[in-house]
Structure formats: structure tokens, C-alpha cells
């Protein structure tokens, strides 16, 4: 769900270092019990299973961006289709994954960005993401093994640190608040210029959207860097009609057809466009 947006936005960040504790007395829940409470706090298993598509509309503030409050639209479709559009200085950048292949277009000085495929690392990450509901909901059906590592302090509050082992063998961590049982932090490994780095994502400002709890503020960064990227949601649409065409790579012969998500529509709709091939 929430972690894919910032994965598409940020590049490689410096290593984040986390201080951890052993499980203190008084917190004697098992991993299964924590996950059960987390699912209930987020709206319930049945409610999440009914969500097949989701669209976020919002804005981004990034230390790596040339301007503030950059508008974005993120379209999600099960099991792991994604399309992220962000407007940078009146030009649109796109990153999309159709479940098998990914492609991206970045703004350029001439106004017509180059269409490029995902790198091997980007494809691997896209295949591993659970874009609608994250790692914990329905984790057994997804083949994700969840264990309890300990408890850390996250923003001054106790949070259970869960280890989630994906079918690929990759291990990621999810922190669940010990009082609200909502996700408050997540980490994943990424490739940096100097080697592997740990990317940290934090969730806050949860709001009720048709019975589901969704974080409307998501921040990503590294503890040592002193910088973060902040994504703020303005609107969330559940189960809007999203055709597979918006995730597919545009054609390359003659005129290149393109489709995009109309953020102004309610619910967001798909619009078609075309432009000459560069």
C-alpha cells in the first residue's frame, strides 16, 4: 500500500541506523496476535480484501525536487500494478509497472522525456511490493512469514518490530504501534552509490476512508542524512475503475499513445492522450 509511492519518488538514500530494545515486560503478545490487532485497527481483513484498486491524489515535498508541493497521482491495482505521475515544473514524470515489466519517463529540457525500462533492481522491488494492503494483511496467503523481533521507541512510543520474510527470501521490517496497532514505520534495502542502504518510511495522520485507516502523511529518509521526503495525501479513492492500459508501456510506432489518471475527476478517471514519437 503506502510504501510503494515513496519507493517510486526517492532514489538511493544513505544508511539509516535504528536503536532497538529487547521486548520489555508487559508486552507479551505473539506475532500472530499483533498482526491480528493490526488488521483490525486498519479496518478488517474482509474490508481490505474487497479493495481491488486505489488512487491517491496529493503533493510531495522533497529535498531532491526543484520545487515544493509537487502534485502527484498514484494508481494501484492488485496484485502489484502501479502508476505514479508527478508534475515537475509543468512537466509530467511517470513510473509504471504492469505486473511484469516497468517503464518510466522523466521530464527533460526539451519537454519530451525519454521512455526507459525499469532497471533490474527496480523490477525486483516492484515484483516484491504488496501495493494495496502491505505485508501484514493476508500475509500467510502471500507467502510472507512474520516474526516478532522486539520493541523499539518510535516517536516516543513503544512499537513492535516485526520481521517479514518475503517469498523471495528478502526480509523487511514493519513497526506497529503498541497502543493503536497501526503501522508507524517500515524499512527496506536499496542499492546506493556506495553499496546497500536502508530506506526508512514513517506513517502518520491516519484518517478513516470508507472504514479503512489510511495514513495521509508519509515521510521517507535516512536518520543520518537529516533530510526526508514528505508525501501528503489530499484524496483517496477506493475501487475506482482502472483499466490495465494505464499501467502498460506506451506503443512505439507512428504516434505513441498514452493514458493517464485524471486527478480532478471524482472518483479519478482515466484520460487518453497522444503525441508524436520523438
Describe this protein with a few key phrases.
mainly beta, 13-stranded antiparallel beta sheet, 4 helices, 15 strands, globular, disordered C terminus
Would you give an account of this structure?
The model is unreliable at 9-26, 252-258 and 272-278 (pLDDT under 50). The chain has 278 residues and is mainly beta. The strands form two sheets. A 13-stranded antiparallel β-sheet has the order 6-5-4-3-2-1-13-12-11-10-9-8-7, with helices on one face. A two-stranded antiparallel sheet has the order 14-15. It has four helices and 15 strands. 12% of the residues lie in helices and 46% in strands. The chain has a single domain (3-276), classed as Lipoprotein localisation LolA/LolB/LppX (outer membrane lipoprotein receptor (LolB), chain A), CATH 2.50.20.
Mean pLDDT: 81
Assigned CATH class: Mainly Beta
Shape field: globular
**Domain count:** 1
The CATH superfamily bears the name: Lipoprotein localisation LolA/LolB/LppX
How many strand segments?
Answer: 15
* C-alpha Rg (nearest Å): 19 Å
| Biggest sheet overview | 13 strands, antiparallel
Distance between the termini: 34 Å
Task: Give the strand order, joined by hyphens, for the main sheet.
Answer: 6-5-4-3-2-1-13-12-11-10-9-8-7
The poorly predicted ranges are 9-26, 252-258, 272-278
The CATH topology name reads outer membrane lipoprotein receptor (LolB), chain A
What is the helix content? 10-25%
Please indicate the percent range of residues in DSSP E strands (runs of 2 or more). over 45%
